[in-house]
């Protein structure tokens, strides 16, 4: 599956947020979207996830024009985990991940899952190494454990692409490395992963492809490079 953006732009309140974005995002790849704060990274993810509509340009999903799709039709292809997402109160890890199976096309709530649905949830918990935490409340977990629970939630939706917005903020370096390794494995297994991040050393180490945004424009795309920091116009804006 290939997502293509051609001359895509987005304006909000008279201000251009994204300008003339032309790029391709493929499955079976870990793509990292980097750039200074305010570069338009989150906006681009929200367009891909169907939450926002581009002001102009073309957004293609496997060659089909996504502008003709409803938000729900676009969202069928993308599981998005936004920045600073908060878990439903009092949910256990199992319940959170099971919630990922509860969308309208299945016409089932998480507590009504079939045995096969429960098996799927358990497999995603194990894949993300949180199976032993399944009965714990999500809010009781460490930052790294919560991120793995959210990743399992995203995988449980069984969509072709994972869109992760700054999900590694606040984690220590070992937790970040472990998370990047898992994302790399998922991409190798066929999942498309698009991650916004400020961790350029880990991007250089793990990413298959990098897209650099500056002032709402693509200033570089291609394999990771050791001098990524020098491709950023405003390094002082980084966290």
Can you lay out the helices and strands and say which pair or pack?
Blueprint: E1 2-12, E2 15-26, E3 29-34, H1 41-48, E4 56-61, E5 64-65, H2 71-75, E6 78-81, H3 93-99, H4 115-127, H5 143-156, E7 161-165, H6 173-188, E8 192-196, H7 200-206, E9 209-214, E10 217-222
Parallel strand pairs: 3-8, 3-9, 6-7, 7-8
Antiparallel strand pairs: 1-2, 1-4, 4-5, 9-10
Helix pairs in contact: 3-4, 3-5, 4-5
* Residue windows where pLDDT falls under 50 for at least 5 positions: 235-239
Q: Order of SSEs, N→C?
A: EEEHEEHEHHHEHEHEE
In CATH's first tier, which class of the largest domain applies? Alpha Beta
The shape is globular
Helices and strands: which structural class?
alpha/beta
What do we call the CATH topology of the largest domain? Rossmann fold
Distance between the termini: 33 Å
What does this molecule look like?
The chain is α/β, with parallel strands linked by helices. The chain folds into 2 domains: 158 residues, Rossmann fold, CATH 3.40.50.300; 72 residues, no CATH class. Helix content is 29%, strand content 26%. It is built from 7 helices and 10 strands. The strands form 2 sheets. Strands 6-7-8-3-9-10 form a 6-stranded mixed beta sheet, sandwiched between helices. The chain has a 4-stranded antiparallel beta sheet with strand order 2-1-4-5, covered by helices on one side. A hairpin with a 2-residue loop joins strand 1 and strand 2. The chain is globular, with a radius of gyration of 18 Å. The two termini are 33 Å apart.
